[in-house]
């Protein structure tokens, strides 16, 4: 979805105006405005991505009518909000989510992986990698990362999950730092096949939910999870 | 023998027993003086009477001083008093030899219960039983020597010995259980302090980590990037991060008062706080944090889902021992069971978080159109302050001795009474009824005797006294069963029926006075018959009430000291942790942050230094066992070259140190030539390799 060169001339106009072109609107929720400035610098190179807004909380972001297609969300905000609740709020708002982290323990990464965020990316990743991740997420594609694969690969919950031996193999290799291409080469399959496996692993993991040992707990979970009325997705 | 440390409960119990001892000694002295005016010990030499008076004063002084004596001096005073009593017993030998007109052993000397209690305080259970044996033996010996081994003497000595045995067992038991209370409290306090310190350290580490994460990593990350950033903004950010690191240790780690924090939280959502707390809340810091986070989440959910115009409020009630916080709204509510089970997040953030805290509870009530009420509560986790079922073996042995002394003493009294009066049926009948009453109580299946059982028991006890007194001549010896009945009432009081025991006592005293007056007995005889029952039952009930109150008070004091220990440990641990972390960050991070804060354009090498430091800090979250030389140096060098390095410790079973050292050396060599990207990983236990490293797309494994 390459845009003409003319479009990039208006790229610096942040926020507000309703664009007629096909650029994906990106918002960022982060404690630091500087991060937004950095992201602005990052996106300067690509014509079809436009930063429209920066807020420091999700509540502030979703208070307005939806004005972004993709939200880059910091995993741990200073307001102590829960990542899962934040992601749910943004999804209710109607935007996709790509999670950015500084450095996280695997538990937080796992919690974010259970949500329907498109992926988890480290802020300190090389510039090209970051940009590729944002671009993929803006297209609605899943974004896999070593940190994500590693957190899942070591989650005891996944041991009982309905994954094939091949899928587990893919996850283990990916978690060791290989890219989809290298994993494909190692297993004699195509890169696309690897990505298919990764997608399925993601959706299986999202469906795992939380450990629910007993029927009683399952019942309790139903009540507790239902504490909020079902969201109205637009 | 090492002196065991006397705890708060035990000291209180010892003082209580000392006071009881003084009261008994005083009563004995009063009765002795009354008897002296009659006939009993007239003619005793003055020096002996002076010694007796001195011993009585010593007993009373022990009781009066007890509340101010420490454990050691209390023990010493009790020792002096009990030795003085033994000397008094011994002094009777020369005293009686100079007399010719004394015909019986004086009653006062046989009343050994107070001395037994004093011996218990001074020398423990063995000392108490020895004193009882000494007094009983001396009584028997002196009666053989000077006379008095008649019905009155036998009955009196049997009841006195029984009193002493009861004192041994009950007071011994009080001491044992108070010691258990102290031991349990010490354990609870130590455990509370340890756990609280642990949580304090954890909280401090979390705070420091959050700071590093939120400010330091973000700043270094930005500084390391080659993206165009306004230098003055970056400098400001670095100055802020640096200031936060420096002030890390100055922050007050103490958790703010929960009520204040709740008010601030409610205010943020425009909701009122209804404060119904009574006095200061004593909430565990971890619980307070969980509750606060849950309240914040609940308010947020309410404002998102309760519908427009919904009013919400936060209610808090509680005191030093519990807290309940409710977030209430009158919004549209929902049907908890009708909502799909696929929603995550709220359960964990609101309810599970509070429930995970020991002592925490959380629930939510809602119905369509009826609003929503989230209830969060905390009570101090049930600590084991209950005294352990205090050495049931010694208790059972003690009770067995009492039973034997009771049966033997009453049988002896009954036989003596039968021989003295020449009539067998009345004493034997009374003995049988007494034993039956004892059985009724003994067979009670519950610790607290049931009401019907208590009633049957009282009918038997009061019945035997009434029938017995009507059947025999009214005198101290022939009325032996009255005191026996009083012992049974003490047992009833011990089965947690002190009121019924007092009622039984009143009935018995009424019968004694009535029958005594009816038979024309003098007030002294009536007092003699009724005296021991009154003293026995009243003292036993008073002791029970005092012990119960003392235990309750002690428990409260123990709880307070555990609470103090908890707070102190939390503060100390979190301060120490923060100080250590701040010192470390000050050394590692602050110089670089200061350079950025100076505002100058960063050189490439400074940028790389930021990248290296950022990577090091990131490794602390995730690299675990891989943080060691020579890998750390190799990784720093690679990062300084611009290589993106990720280290992951995913070992489910941590390898041993030599293996980790080998892995580090192997991995360090492998990344020497890396150009753009390195992922080093300790593998989970079930994999082929112990570790892998992926260098620029090529993966190799370490197999040990």
Shape verdict of chain B? elongated
- Strand content bin of chain B: 5-15%
Q: Could you state the oligomeric state of the chains shown?
A: heterodimer
Radius of gyration of chain B: 39 Å
Mean pLDDT of chain A: 76
Mind telling me the C-alpha Rg of chain A? 19 Å
Mean pLDDT of chain B: 82
Q: Sheet with the most strands of chain A?
A: 5 strands, parallel
Termini separation of chain A: 26 Å
In short:
The complex is a heterodimer of chains A (234) and B (704). Chain A has 10 helices and 5 strands.
Structural account:
The complex is a heterodimer of chains A (234) and B (704). Chain A is 44% helix and 12% strand. Chain A contains ten helices and five strands, in the order βαβαβαβαβαααααα. Chain A is globular and about 45 Å long. The relative contact order of chain A is 0.10. The model of chain A is unreliable at 1-20 and 211-234 (pLDDT under 50). By secondary structure, chain B is an alpha+beta fold. Among the domains of chain B are: 1-149; 623-702, no CATH class. Helices cover 67% and strands 8% of the residues of chain B. Chain B has 20 helices and nine strands. In chain B, the strands form two sheets. Chain B has a five-stranded mixed β-sheet with strand order 1-2-3-5-4, with helices on one face. In chain B, strands 6-7-8-9 form a four-stranded mixed β-sheet. Chain B is elongated, with a radius of gyration of 39 Å.
């Amino acid at each position: 979805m390459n845009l003409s060169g003319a479009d990039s001339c208006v790229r610096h106009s942040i926020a507000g105006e309703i664009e007629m072109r096909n650029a994906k609107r990106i918002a960022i929720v982060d404690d630091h405005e500087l991060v937004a400035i950095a992201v602005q610098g990052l996106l300067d190179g690509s014509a079809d991505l436009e930063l429209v807004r920066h807020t420091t909380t999700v509540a502030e972001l979703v208070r307005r009518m939806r004005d972004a297609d993709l939200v880059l969300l910091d995993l741990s905000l200073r307001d102590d909000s829960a990542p899962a609740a934040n992601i749910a709020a943004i999804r209710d708002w109607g935007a996709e989510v790509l999670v950015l982290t500084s450095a996280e323990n695997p538990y937080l990464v796992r919690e974010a992986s259970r949500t329907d965020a498109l992926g988890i990316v480290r802020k300190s990743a090389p510039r090209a990698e970051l940009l590729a991740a944002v671009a993929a997420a803006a297209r609605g594609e899943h974004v896999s990362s070593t940190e994500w694969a590693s957190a899942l690969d070591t989650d005891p919950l996944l041991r009982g999950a309905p994954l094939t031996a091949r899928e587990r193999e893919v996850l283990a290799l990916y978690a060791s730092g290989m890219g989809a291409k290298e994993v494909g080469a190692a297993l004699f399959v195509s890169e696309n096949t690897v990505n298919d496996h990764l997608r399925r692993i993601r959706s299986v993991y999202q469906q795992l939910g939380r450990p629910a040992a007993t029927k009683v707990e399952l019942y309790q979970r139903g009540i507790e999870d239902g504490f909020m009325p079902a969201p109205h997705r637009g | 023998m090492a002196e065991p440390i006397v705890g708060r409960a035990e000291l209180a119990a010892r003082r209580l027993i000392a006071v009881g001892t003084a009261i008994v000694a005083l009563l004995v002295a009063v009765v002795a003086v009354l008897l002296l005016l009659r006939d009993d010990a007239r003619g005793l030499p003055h020096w002996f009477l002076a010694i007796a008076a001195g011993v009585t004063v010593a007993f009373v002084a022990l009781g009066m001083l007890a509340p101010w004596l420490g454990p050691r001096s209390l023990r010493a005073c009790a020792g002096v008093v009990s030795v003085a009593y033994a000397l008094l017993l011994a002094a009777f030998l020369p005293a009686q030899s100079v007399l010719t007109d004394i015909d019986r052993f004086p009653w006062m000397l046989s009343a050994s219960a107070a001395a037994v209690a004093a011996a218990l305080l001074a020398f423990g259970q063995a000392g108490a039983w020895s004193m009882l044996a000494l007094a009983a033996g001396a009584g028997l010996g002196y009666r053989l020597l000077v006379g008095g081994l008649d019905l009155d003497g036998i009955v009196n000595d049997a009841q006195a010995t029984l009193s002493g045995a009861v004192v041994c067992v009950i007071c011994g038991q009080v001491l044992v259980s108070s010691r258990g209370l102290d031991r349990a409290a010490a354990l609870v306090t130590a455990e509370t302090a340890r756990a609280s310190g642990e949580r304090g350290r954890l909280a401090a580490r979390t705070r420091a980590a959050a700071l590093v994460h939120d400010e330091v990593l973000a700043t270094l990350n930005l500084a390391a990037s080659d993206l165009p950033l306004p230098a003055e903004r970056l400098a400001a950010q670095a100055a802020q991060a640096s200031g936060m690191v420096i002030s890390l240790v100055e922050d007050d780690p103490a958790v703010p008062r929960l009520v204040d924090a709740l008010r601030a939280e409610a205010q943020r959502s425009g909701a009122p706080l209804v404060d119904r707390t009574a006095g200061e809340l004593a909430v565990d810091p971890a619980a307070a944090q969980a509750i606060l986070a849950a309240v914040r989440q609940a308010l947020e959910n309410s404002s998102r889902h309760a519908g427009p115009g919904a009013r919400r409020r936060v209610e808090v009630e509680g005191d030093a021992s519990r807290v309940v916080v409710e977030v209430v709204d009158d919004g549209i509510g929902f049907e908890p069971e009708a909502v799909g089970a696929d929603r995550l997040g709220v359960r964990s953030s609101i309810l599970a978080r509070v429930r995970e805290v020991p002592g925490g509870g959380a629930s939510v009530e809602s119905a369509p159109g009826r609003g929503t009420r989230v209830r969060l509560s905390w009570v101090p986790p049930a600590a084991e302050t209950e005294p352990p079922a205090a050495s049931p073996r010694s208790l059972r042995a003690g009770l067995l001795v009492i039973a034997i002394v009771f049966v033997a003493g009453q049988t002896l009294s009954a036989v003596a009474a039968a021989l003295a009066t020449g009539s067998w049926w009345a004493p034997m009948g009374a003995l049988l009824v007494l034993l039956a009453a004892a059985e009724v109580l003994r067979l009670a299946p519950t610790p607290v005797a049931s009401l019907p059982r208590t009633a049957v028991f009282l009918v038997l006890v009061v019945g035997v006294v009434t029938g017995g007194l009507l059947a025999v001549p009214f005198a101290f010896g022939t009325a032996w069963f009255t005191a026996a009945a009083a012992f049974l009432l003490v047992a009833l009081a011990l089965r947690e029926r002190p009121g019924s025991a007092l009622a039984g006592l009143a009935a018995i005293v009424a019968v004694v006075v009535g029958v005594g007056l009816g038979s024309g007995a003098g007030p002294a005889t009536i007092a003699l018959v009724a005296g021991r029952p009154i003293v026995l039952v009243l003292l036993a009930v008073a002791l029970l009430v005092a012990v119960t109150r003392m235990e309750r008070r002690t428990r409260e004091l123990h709880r307070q000291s555990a609470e103090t220990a908890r707070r102190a440990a939390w503060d100390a641990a979190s301060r120490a942790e923060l100080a250590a972390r701040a010192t470390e960050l000050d050394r590692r991070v602050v110089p670089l942050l200061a350079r950025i804060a100076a505002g100058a354009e960063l050189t490439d090498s400074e940028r790389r230094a930021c990248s290296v430091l950022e990577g090091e800090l990131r490794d602390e979250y995730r690299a675990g066992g891989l943080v060691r030389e020579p890998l750390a140096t190799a990784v720093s060098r690679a990062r300084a070259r611009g290589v993106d390095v990720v280290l992951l410790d995913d070992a489910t079973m941590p390898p041993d140190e030599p293996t980790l050292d080998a892995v580090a050396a192997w991995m360090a060599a492998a990344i020497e030539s890396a150009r753009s990207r390195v992922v080093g990983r300790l593998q989970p236990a079930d994999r082929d390799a112990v570790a892998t490293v992926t260098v620029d797309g090529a993966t190799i494994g370490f197999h040990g």
